[in-house]
Amino acid sequence: MIEYALFDLDDTLYPPESGVLQAIGRRIEQYLIERLGMDPDTAARLRVEYRTEYGTTLAGLLAHGAADPEDYLAFVHDIPVEQLLCPSPAVERALAGLPWRRVIVTNSDRSHAERVLAALGIRSLFDEIFDIRGMQYRHKPHPAVYRRVLRALGVEGAQCLMADDVVANLLPAKELRMTTVWVAPQARLQQGVDFAIPNVAAIVEVAAKVKAQQRMRQSPRPSPRRGAGGAFS
Ligand SMILES: [Mg+2]
After folding, report:
1. Consecutive 10-residue averages of pLDDT for the chain (233 residues)
2. Which one of 33, 195, 206, 212 has the minimum C-beta count within 10 Å?
3. pLDDT at residue number 218
4. pLDDT at position 219, please?
5. Which ranges in 35-153 belong to alpha helices (H)?
6. What's the 103 CA to ligand 1 centre distance in angstroms?
7. How much is the pLDDT for 233?
8. Which pLDDT score is estimated for 177?
């Protein structure tokens, strides 16, 4: 039985076209230029290289001992979240109606998560926020992140559903037997993905299907008719 729904934050709880991640991307390049003294071309190139090699720019900077993670996180998340996001009644209704407890598992930091949830008007719907700081700056899809969340919640993977806009972040969740939901306009079923939905409001359809599957598992199977032969023998 699923008890917890683990939601990614950015581009999962709001549409990608909101521009939040693009604004953070610009701040990351600004950080490389202003704080680390790079020229704009080097900053743009290094950002792509670090993301490819290490998963995030921060992970690359830390691997090279090049940045103070707290200074970095404060700098790159200094964006006008409140101007980019607004509440969606459909999303609030969908999340509020879920039969599971809701938590955030994000590669960003807590203060950014708090601002995003407040701007979307859904902060009170989430029990907990697991952020990059709490993960010692490890980020999804590192398996340690998922194990740490499960330990903190005191549950097994099979008791969790994870929703994320990045498929790579769902694969370790699937390995731990979580139910996985890919939330993205281009989402489709594939290996490691149990459900694919175009936006987070459609999570209600996932909840309905999970409930139906649980009912099917719980209902007793027809017992074989003795001596009748045929399909049940
Ligand atoms: Mg995301």
Report:
1. 97 97 95 95 94 93 92 96 97 98 97 98 98 93 97 98 98 98 98 98 97 88 55 43
2. 212
3. 86
4. 83
5. 40-54, 57-63, 69-76, 81-84, 89-96, 110-120, 143-153
6. 14
7. 39
8. 98
Going from the N-terminus, what domains does the chain have, and what CATH number goes with each? 4-16+85-218 (3.40.50.1000), 20-81 (1.10.150.450)
Question: What whole-number distance in Å separates Cα of residue 109 and Cα of residue 129?
Answer: 9
- At residue 228, the pLDDT reads 47
Q: How many CB atoms lie within 10 A of CB 165?
A: 23
Query: How many Å lie between the centroid of ligand 1 and the Cα of residue 11?
Result: 5
d(CA 71, CA 79): 15
pLDDT at 229: 44
What are 25's two structure tokens? Answer: 């991307």
> How far away, in angstroms, is 138 Cα from ligand 1 center?
15
Tell how far the Cα of 164 is from the centroid of ligand 1, in angstroms: 6
68 to 19, 43, 52, 90: CA distances (angstroms): 26, 17, 21, 39
Q: How far is the CA of 13 from the centre of ligand 1 (A)?
A: 8
C-alpha of 81 from chain center: 18
The residue ranges of DSSP E strands in the chain, in sequence order, are: 4-7, 101-105, 128-130, 160-164, 179-183, 195-197
